[in-house]
Amino acid sequence: MEFLDEEKVRSLLRYEALLPAVERALVELSAGRIRQPVRSVLRVAEQGGILALMPAIDGELMGVKMVTVYEGNRGQPTHQAVIQLFSAKTGEPLLAMDGRLITEMRTAAVSAVAVRVLARTNARVLGILGSGVQARSHLRALRLVRAFDEVRVWSRTEDHARRFAQECGARVMPSVEEAIRGADVVVSVANTREPLVHGAWLARGALVCAVGAIGPDKRELDDVAMQGTVVVESRAAGMRESGDIIGSGAELSAELGEILAGSGKLFQPGQWTVFKSLGVGATDIAAAQIVFEEWKRSVADFET
After folding, report:
1. What distance, in Å, lies between the first and last C-alpha atoms of the chain?
2. Residue 161: exposed, middle, or buried by beta-carbon count in 10 A (0-12, 13-18, 19+)?
3. Same structural domain, 290 and 265
4. How far apart are CA 50 and CA 58, in angstroms?
5. Dihedral of the CA atoms 124, 126, 256, 190 (nearest 10)?
6. In this predicted structure, what is the pLDDT of residue 301?
7. How high does pLDDT run on average in the chain?
8. What is the per-residue pLDDT across 80-138, written as a single tens digit (0 to 9) for each?
9. Would you say residue 303 lies in a domain?
10. Has residue 303 got a pLDDT over 90?
11. How far is the C-alpha of 52 from the C-alpha of 270, rounded, in Å?
12. Could you tell me if 98 and 149 lie in one domain?
């Protein structure tokens, strides 16, 4: 059985194919046609890390992502993963691949799908909180669905913010508040345990893609921000894994897949919307399936 490393995965996976794939997966997940449990997490207390398992079954394909999160890592990624695909018909192992890049790209792709359907069509100002891997991937993916006239960036480390801003033509903002006020779309991808996004700073009609805090004990939005309309990938995951939802007692309006399918509760005009993204196995497997199909095609072309 083959194992594809990150560079091979990078050569086979493109956002243009990934966005419609994760959109389909979210619709199928909300409809119950993709089966997955909430991720199971084993803590590595000695190192302050976690090992999480994220399985899903999608038609004749099933797979599991095994992902580690070591926030204290220096010199190597904080998030590392392997995805193993199987035949759902026979249980046969099909292909294994590095999952770090898939995690990076599918997270941004899901946010881009959320922006496409939840953000105002005339959204022009984007505020990004964070300047790392997810900030870069989100900007690449979001530019496929909206043409932003202004991109703002805030980071705890000013040098990192300036480097990111130089790469992508953004403006460095001296505070979180200044990055958020007046923004049509706010992307929160800074690793945090305490709220960075305050509802008092949000423009009416804004969309917040909240990606930076995963876990029942972590927050990135204050209680006022959570009074907006809250959309999730999975209600089950949101109620178990999001400190923002658990701590605020916010009502979940809809799953993103329900809105994509036209069955979700519509948000009220003028109210801001929070898309609380936690990551689900269904979208990992959707991304891995693209890699699998492209890999099979490349092998067949080589053999002919």
Report:
1. 21
2. buried
3. no
4. 26
5. 180
6. 78
7. 95
8. 999 999 999 999 999 999 999 999 999 999 999 999 999 999 999 999 999 999 999 99
9. no
10. no
11. 38
12. no
Domain of 49: which CATH number?
Answer: 3.30.1780.10
**Cα 208–53–38 angle (5° rounding)?**
55
pLDDT digits (tens, 9 = 90+) for 135-170: 999 999 999 999 999 999 999 999 999 999 999 999
Quick one: tokens of 115?
A: 């922006």
Same domain, 96 and 191: no
The tokens describing 152, both together, are 């703002």
Domain count of the fold of the chain: 2
Q: With a cut of 70, say whether residue 267 has pLDDT above it.
A: no
Could you tell me the residue range of the domain that residue 48 belongs to? 3-102+282-295
Among residues 160, 157, 209, 158, which one has the least CA distance to residue 180? Answer: 209
Angle, alpha carbons 94-1-53 (nearest 5°): 60
Residue 152 amino acid letter: R
Give the integer Cα–Cα distance in Å for 282 and 290: 13
